[in-house]
Amino acid sequence: MAPLEPQEKVLVAKEFLSSPHGKIACESCHGGNAASMDKAAGHTGMDPHPSSNNPQKACGDCHGKIVATAKDSLHATLSTFPSVLKSRANMDKWAHIDEARKNHCAACHTSCGGCHVSRPKFAQKGFVKGHLFQKRTDPINQCTACHGSRVGFEFYGERGQGDVHAAKAAMDCVACHSAREMHAAAPKDLPGRYHLKEMARCTDCHKDLERGPVPEHQRHIGRVQCQVCHSQTYVNCYNCHMGKDSEGLAFFQNRREVETVKIGLNYDDKAPGAGYRYMLVRHVPSYPEMFDFYGKGGFTNFGKTPTWKRASPHNIQRRTWQAASCNHCHGNRALFLASSDLLDYEKEANHKVVVPDGSVPQAIKKVRKVAVDTSKVRTGMVVDARWLHDNLGKKNVVVVDTRGSAAFDKGHIEGAISFDPLTSGLRTGGDAEKAFVLVPHARVAEILGSKGIAAGDHIVVYDQSGVMATALGAVLQWAGATNVSYLNGGIEGWHEAGFHTSTKPSTRQARIFNGTVQPSLVVDSDTLAKLLGKPNVVVLDARAIHRVLGETRHELARRVGAIPGSINLPLGALILDNGALKPPEELLWMLKTYGITPDKTVITTCDTGIAASDAFFILRYLGFPDVRVHDEAWVNWSIDR
Fold first, then answer.
1. Strand partners, 522
2. pLDDT tens-digit map of 9-68
3. Were both Cys, which of 30, 192, 239, 487 would link to 255 (CB 3.0–4.6 Å)?
4. Which DSSP helix (H) or strand (E) runs through 28?
5. What DSSP designation does 626 have?
6. Are 503 and 410 in contact (CB under 8 A)?
7. Are 277 and 349 in contact (CB under 8 A)?
């Protein structure tokens, strides 16, 4: 979500004046002194957030029935937060805990205005459409502006494939989470959000599945939560540290995130529609010292409430890897939450959620296996931390850190050179006639050589998330490098393997790159246009789903949309947040479900060429023989065509 420009946040659209709300005097909602011609006097008593501070006065005169319940809704009150905190708390320290809750947790609440006219406070405020009131909330500027990491990223494919409801049916948040749920008053003793009787459920739309044509539904409904089979991997957070900085501003920081799928036992079958035994669980970032900044010893009853809690990821797919074969789940101990997955301080809290060995469904003897040919995978294009550690210092091994100079200076793999593909001059700038395209090969070779990189080296690239590293890997292959590898898991994988980093400056003597350009690995828009529609050609659009749906666009794109006939597979489907790649057989299976197979010419595209280069590199690693990058990308396509 890009921040709004200052003028966008505050300027009132001319169209507002003729709208129903625009015909109401400003002071009717906001207060102030309309009779005064003096600015200061006119704004005396003015309330910039009337629906937050006095919803009955601001909205209730016209929307009385809605306000009567919405003021007590979960969005308005976050009433389940104190309940959960109290279950863990030493109540003698409640004043400290509640202060922390108000400074951090309570910042996420919103009101009528935060859903219907402006961004909520947590999302940096500002009018969405010039003060025009919208009956249907804006999924980008309102819903996922707050519900980002665990909802928006998953739903739109900034993590994983995205959600089939968005990709195939162009459904937005309100399609499932209607006003009935959003405006519902939450009972004061509500144990958690899943207990709200108005909450959206899969079965609101998908009815009578147990009597349908899918045998798996007949076997699993009533025993297994829908998301167990239909969700992809999702993020799990650990150790959220909260406090205030030197200027008194409240902050929080998750110290670790892991993307995974975990199945636990249902410990809360009293929630409506939750009679199943197995459910997906997500790790919440609570830990005993979470609020120590405000006073130590607050969570003496930490073991009373699970930290692995019921999850409903917004990344639904009809077909997922864990459900591709019965024994991807049955007998797969790693998929089910085990005691070994727990940190020492949370073992007591999660004893009801852990799936004991005897409760893991047994493997099925006669089962259809998933046939995936991995024989063409170019295994040398991906190396792990152990391999790199053992090969550091060898004459022909060049390690390239693509994170940028600030991150490099804080700590890098010893001997690595710093090389940021975005600022190194490999591509034209945004103000060029053709923005973000590769510069001539001679210039690329000169830049690479100046960094001490030669085409014959074994070049190992890494970063934090994989995006910059694999993009550089693609450019290196186009430029003629013959042996390029990606460090699986990047710098985080290096740390997880127990290896240290260095802050010592590291450079290499300039050399002649001496690589032969591979022009067949890149196509321009004219070439791509001629290939469209051919049965053996697939165009893979690696952008997030909201780009393809036209809900957002790159600032330099002339229009929204997508290349005709292209298949949208967000980059997040190919690489995890921490830069780790899923096993080749899983990636190849997933690509096949989209019709992207090695027997076809695959052209990757995106907004600027970066995500397309990432997808190119990963498909090359998976053994695709004919992959090409659409270098001009959507930014130029949208202008020229």
1. 629
2. 788 999 999 999 999 988 889 999 988 889 899 899 898 889 988 888 889 989 999 999
3. 239
4. helix 26-30
5. -
6. yes
7. no
